[in-house]
Amino acid sequence: MNARPVLLQATGLLPSLERRLDENYTVHRLPPPGTERDAFLAARAGEVEALVTSAGAGASAALIDALPRLRIISSFGVGLDTLDLDAAKRRGIPVGYTPDVLNDCVADQAFALLLAIARRIPEADRYVRAGSWTAQPAKSFALGRQVSGAKLGIVGLGRIGKTIARRAGGFDMEVRYHSRRAVEGVAWPHEPSLLELARWCDFLVVITAGGAETRHLVNAEVLDALGTKGYLVNVARGTVIDEAALVRALQEKRIAGAGLDVFEREPHVPPELFALENVVLAPHIASATVQTREAMAQRVLDNLSAFYAGQPLPSQAA
Ligand code: NDP
């Protein structure tokens, strides 16, 4: 008889995490949606008591409801927009996730994108590689925008937003933020109106939660308030920005530029962006360093082992 808990892995994970899951659990990989998945669930759903997923893959109510013996969900990532917490709660299933361990890395990526777009780094790289640097100084290369001393507006001053605000201190930036509630115990001024924040700042960095409540929070009106000299950076979720409005604003140069780590329908990126010099694109990699991904993997394991030891989860979302 197999005494190890049966665990369902909903998505591909870091190889080191998959190895450690295999050492401690009987792991099944969830087939992609379709007949293979249906057949798998028909044969195995009743055995599964742990589900490991990611912020990208999530866990729908349909999947949770299809697993009658499910007792614990452990998710790799901090985004909760793809996890049906209500469905888990109805069944009393705790949901573990991996907050905090990625704050530094995501804040670093926010600054990497901010600097890349303001100082035209990818454009400069393309310019040099193309052999366009034919005279010294490089007069035909457009001037960038100074970051040090600029005004930074942060949308969402949560765990990562605060880390970004602290980074900004190193650049002597003036910081204000917008969120539904003012955060206690911080010196940065709260701006109750997102439009006012966009009008005030030089750089608007978006790091709110995703999901229905923040959908298209940054719309055409906010982009116009940011204006022709303002830059947008999004490391939150693609859904927080009205992507069609953003594409138009970039094409018409109604904002100065954007640095984007996330998109509305990943991995789809609007092809109109590919031809634009005023945007820097990244494939959702804000937490993608060896160190951070290992720390996230460890938290996924720690949440599971705490559950099986009858202890509170180190990081429980619901
Ligand atoms: P937190 O929960 O600590 O912070 C979320 C912030 O968003 C809070 O300040 C909250 O403030 C604000 N917020 C929520 N809803 C709204 C709203 N309707 N209007 C304005 N502000 C709002 O989360 P983290 O800082 O840990 O993470 C933030 C998000 O970053 C994650 O949810 C995830 O989606 C994204 N992320 C992206 C990564 C990437 O790879 N690009 C990696 C990691 C995270 P209040 O409730 O007061 O409004």
Automatic annotation (TrEMBL):
Residues 111-286 form the D-isomer specific 2-hydroxyacid dehydrogenase NAD-binding domain. Residues 38-316 form the D-isomer specific 2-hydroxyacid dehydrogenase catalytic domain. InterPro entries: D-isomer_2-hydroxyacid_DH, D-isomer_2_OHA_DH_cat_dom, D-isomer_DH_CS1, D-isomer_DH_NAD-bd, NAD(P)-bd_dom_sf. Keywords: NAD, Oxidoreductase. The keyword NAD applies. Gene3D superfamilies: NAD(P)-binding Rossmann-like Domain. PROSITE patterns: D_2_HYDROXYACID_DH_1 (PS00065). Belongs to the D-isomer specific 2-hydroxyacid dehydrogenase family. This is 2-hydroxyacid dehydrogenase. It comes from Ramlibacter pallidus.
